[in-house]
Queue: 4 jobs
Job 1
Amino acid sequence: MESASFTAEAVYADGVAATTSDFNRGVVEGEGLGLVVGAEYVVFTVTIRNGSTQDLDLGAVVPSMVYGDERFAAAPLYSEVETNDLTGTLKPGDSAEGSYAFLLPAGAPETVLYLDLNGSHQPLVFRGDLP
C-alpha cells in the first residue's frame, strides 16, 4: 500500500479507509512521570470508515509516529491532553474516531504516521507535512 498525505484518505482494497484531521499543537506544562515541561506535542483525530462487508475489530489499533531523516520515534503523550483510543467493533458502512497525541517538535521534518489496524491489514502510512 502506498502512503497518503495527512490531508488525504488511505483506502485498503477491501474498502476500509482512514483519514487524519484536527491537528493541534501545544506545549507540555505539567510535571510528572514521562512529562517534559516545555516539550512540544501534536494531538490529532483518526477516523476509520468500514467500507468492507465484514465487521472490523478496532481493539488492536496501534498508531506510531516517527520524524526526521533518522526516523526518531515520537513518544506518545497520554496525559496533559485528552485522547481517546479507537475501540469496539465497526459494522460495515460505519465510521469511528479516535484521538492520539505524540511529543513532536514544531517543524519536525519527514513526519510519518503508521496506523496498524490489526493482523489482517498492513499498517497504513501517512507521510508529509502536518496540516
Job 2
Amino acid sequence: MNILVLPGTMWQLALINKIKEMGHRALVVNPAPNSIGFSYADAYLQSDIFDVDKVVAFGKKYHVDAIMSDECDIAMNLIAELGEIFNVPCLDKDTARLYTDKFLMREFSKKLGLKYPEYKFCKTVKDAIELLREVGAPIIIKPLDSNASHGVFKITTESELLEKFNESISFSRHEKCVLAERFIDGIEFTIDGIKTPSMHYTLAISEKKHFKHNESIANELYFTHHNAKFDYDEIRRVNDVFVMHSNLKFGFTHAEYKYENGSFYLIEIAARGGGNMISSVVTQYMTGYDTYRYLIECATGNMHEQDFSLRPEYRNRAAVLKFFSTPHKGGVVKEIRGLDYLDLEPDIIQYKLNFRTGDNIVPASNDSARIGFYIACSENKEKLNEVMKNVDQNFEVII
C-alpha cells in the first residue's frame, strides 16, 4: 500500500521505516529541500504541507491508500481534511479540532465533569485583563492551537499582559484568539496512550521538571509506571474519561496534566504520540509493544482490537527524556565533552545536539529552541538514576 506521511522531518523517520519494514511504500511531503524524510521515502514532494492542492495532486498521482503523521500537532487537522478527501481511515475533522484547540478541550472537560482551571476565551487583551483581575495573578496565556510552547507566557501583571498578548495571539492558526487561564502552580505530568476501537490504554506516564528561566519549557520527563507520591491510577482514569468520550476511533494520545490539591487538571491533550521520540522510543520500551505496527494496520484499513495492558515483566521499567541546559547564560561553544559516554552507554537509546563547536547558544525560548536531549531507558529506576548521574558527571558544554 502507498502511505502518505506528513511532514517529512526526523520525527517521522521511525514511522517511515516501520511502514517500509511492513512492505508498504512511504510517500513524504515536506517544504525544506533535502529534507531528511526524502532520503527514506519511496517518493516525495517538496512543498508546504498546507498547500492542499499540491498534496492532493501528489496523493492522486501515487494512489494513496493511507495518510499518517505522528509527533506533530500542526498536521492533525490537515490529516483529517486529507483523510476525508481520499476516504481513508483517520480521525475526523471535529475530533482533530477537539485535540488541537485548547479552548475546546476546556469546554469538553467541563461537559464531562473533569477538573479544569478557570479560563477565558480572549479575542482582545481586555478579555484577558478581565480574567487576571477576576482570578488574580499569575495567569497563563496561550494560543488556541500552537505547538512547541510558542506564544505561551506566564503573566503576573497587566503590563506583562499588554506586552505579550499580541505575540501569543500571532501563533493561533485556526482563529486569532488566546486562551487565558489561572496558572496552576503544581507538578506537571505527561500521559501517553493508545486508542483502539473500544478501549484506551495508558502506555507511559512521566513526572516533568522545567527550566528555571522559563516554567513553560520542560527539561526532564521521568517515566515510570507507578509513583509513590502520586496516584497514577487516578490520572489514568481521568485521561480515559476524556478519550473514551471523544470520537477518536484509533490512534495515539499524548496529554499533559497538572496536580493541585489532590486532583489532576488537564492542560492539553493531542491525538498523536509524544514528541522528541516519546512515541517512537519511550512508550515502546516501557510496554514492549510495537505500537507503530498497530497504528499502520489501522490506518491501512485493518482496524482491530489489541490488548495493550501492561505486562508484569515491564512494570519496573523506567525511562527519561532529558534536555540539556545551556551553560550560564549562553555563549560561543568552545568544546563539547563526554560524547564518548553518550555513545557507549547501552541504556542511552538516543541523543541529539542542536549545535556544534563554534555555534552561539542561548537559553531556550520555546520547546523547539532547546539545545539537545538524550533518552535513557533502563530496567528499573535505580539503574536509570545511575545513568543520569553519569551523564551529569561526563557531559559538559564549554563556552
Job 3
Amino acid sequence: MRLRCAVLDDFQSAAATAADWSPVADRVEVVAFTEHFASEDALAAALADFDVVVTLRERVAFPGSLLARLPRLKLLIASGMRNSVIDFAAAERGGVTVCGTASAPTPPTELTWALLLGLARGLVPESTALRTGGPWQSTVGADLHGSRLGILGLGKIGGRVARIALAFGMEVTAWSRHLTKERAEECGVELAPSKEELLTGSDFVSVHLALSDRTEGLIGAAELALMKPTAFLVNTSRAAIVDQDALLAALREGRIAGAGVDVFDVEPLPADHPMRTAPRLLATPHLGYVSRANYATYYGQAVEDIAAYLAGSPVRPLGRGNGSGAN
C-alpha cells in the first residue's frame, strides 16, 4: 500500500522543486499544503489520512493531544535537529518515529543583517517615498562604523553576526547567562558584564538566544527602557524572548529608534495584528531559514528520512534531548 505524506506550510509551493522526490515516488504520495492550519482541530482533520508529515522548524506544534488524534501517523519529520514543540514522549508512546534534517545558520545570519542595515539606512521609507512621489531624502542614516552592536547569545548564529559586525568596523559586546570570556575572545568581541550594561551601551541590539523558561520575556519593558532612544533592536530568534506588548509600546512612544523583527507571537500574523501597523518597525514573515540552499537541504533530507524509514533504518532521529533551539 502507498503511504501518504503531508508537507505543511509550503507557502511558496517550493517543496516539489526544492528536492528530488523520485526515490520515494513509487511508494509515497506527497501532498503539499500551502495554507497554515491554525488550530489543532483543523490539523487533526487535515492530517487524519496521512502516514508521514513533514513540518518546517517549529511552525506547527505536535502536542500529545494532537498526536493522539493521528493514529495513522508513523513518521514525523521536522527540519533542523532541535525542536521544542513536539511531544517526543507522546510520539514514542504512539509509535511515531521523529526525524530531523540538517540546517544552516547562514540564512538567518544574513537576514539579521538585512534587517539591521534596512533599519540603519531607512531603506523602506526612503524606497517607498521614491516610488510614490514622496520627499527626496527624508531620513538621516545611522552609521555602523564606530557604533556598538550588543549581541544577546553568541552561538552559531550570534558568532557569525559578530564577525560581520567587526568587518563593518563596529565595536561588539555580547552577553548570555552562560557566555564565557573564552567564547567571547574566540569571536573577537567583548563580554558584557551584564544584560543591563549591554542594553545601555549599545546602538544596535540583536537577539540570538534559544527559547527556554529562562529566556522567555528576557527583554521586557524595563530592559527596553535601558536602551538609547537612538538604538535599534533586531530579533530573528524567537518572539517570546522579547515581550511583544512592551516592544509595541516602545515603538509607538518612540522610546527606541526602531526594531527589525522576523518572529511573532502568532504566525502567520492575523490581518488585524498590531505588529502589522506598528511604527518604526521593519518586519518580515519569519524568513530566517527560508533560502534556496536551506530548502534543498530540508526537503532533500526529508526524502532521505522517508527512504531510510521505509528501509527499516531511520536516520537523524529526534528525541527529548533535542528539545529546544533558536530559530
Job 4
Amino acid sequence: MVLPFFGKKPSPGTGSAGAPGAERGAQRPAAPPTELSTLDFTAGDAAHALARCAGLVEVQEMDSGVGAAFEEAAVLYANGNVEDAEKVLNAVLDGPSAQAGEGLWMMLLDLYKLTGQRERFESRVLDYATRFERSPPPWEDLSSQAARPRSDVAPLINLSGKLTGQAAAQFQQIGVIGRKSGAIRIDLSRLRSVDEDGCRLFLQLLQSLAADRVKVSVLKPSQLVNMLEGQIAAGRAENRDAWLLLLEMLQYAGEQERFEQFAVDYAITFEESPPSWMPKAQAAMSATQVDADAEKTPDGFCLEGEIAGAQAEGIRKLAAYAAERQRVDVDCSNLRRMDFVSAGTLFNILATLQAQGKLVVLHKVNAMVAALLRVMGVDQVAQVTLRN
C-alpha cells in the first residue's frame, strides 16, 4: 500500500464548493511548494524548530475530516510524547461521529506495537475488526526493548595474499567464527596465490563446516578456480588437493558443465571416483541471508531505530548513497520514530534527489512515522509504502 492512506486528495479545481478546504484545494499546485525545501531544520532542539517552522509547513487536509487529529498525533509522537499522541487518537476513534478512517486506526495500532502495549493492542484490534469487517493486523512487538540488531547477515571473511600451510591458525579462527554464527561468507577476491598445503587447509575447513551444518557462501570463487586450473594437468597424478578444491569451487560457482569436465579428468588421473555434483551457489546465498530484505530493497539502504537530533547522520548519508543510483529503495521496517527536524532534513534531501530525476522508495514504514512524513510532504518527493 502506498501513501496517501487517508483517502484520495482532491485534484486541483475539482473540489466541491461545500467541502471543507475545497477552495484551497483548487488553488494548490500539484507539485510540492518549493519554499519547503529551503526551510531550516538544522537546529538541534526539535521543540524550538517545530515552533519556528510549523507556520511555514503546508499540511494538506484529509478527506475524512480528521486531519487535525492526524497531524497532532503524528507530531506529538515525533517529539516523543507518546501518551498525548495516544490520547488524541483515542479521542477521535471514540468520538460520537465515529467517522475516523482506517488510517487513524492503523496509527493507534502501530503506536501500541511501537510501545510494546500488547493488552491495549488486543483490546483495540477487536474494535478495528468490527468496524472494518476484516481480519485485523497481527501483534508484533516493535518497541525498543524488543528490537534486536540485524543478525541475519553472516560474518564476512576476506582471504588475501598467499594461501599456504602457514594459514592454519587463520583457518582455525574462521571455523570458530562460522560455528558461532551458524553461517559465514568467505571472499576470495583478494587472493593472489595458493599452494598445495593451502588447498588442503581450505578444503578441510569447508568440509568441517559442512559437517557441522554451518552455512557457507564463497564470494568470487572463480578467482580461485582460475588459479587452480593452472596448477593441475590431466594424467599427472599430483596436486590432488588442488584438484579437489577446484571441484569444490566450481560447485560454489554453479558451473556444472566445467565441473563434469574436470571430474572426468580427475577420475582418469587418480583412478578413483570424483566428488558428486552438489550445487552450492544458490543454497549458500539464501542460507547466509546476505541481505534479508534483498528482494524488497535491492539497494540495501536502511533507516533504523529512533532518528532524532544527532542520530540523523543516516539520513544525510542517503544523498551520497543515491549519487550513482537512479532508483533508491530504503528499508524502514526497523525505523520506530523520526523527529520533526530529521523529517525536515529527509524532505530536503529527497526533494533534491527528485529534482535530479531519481526515484526514492521508502519501504515498510510504520503508520506513525508515515503520518509525519505526510505532514511534512515527504510523500510528494518519494514513494512511501506502509508496513503490513
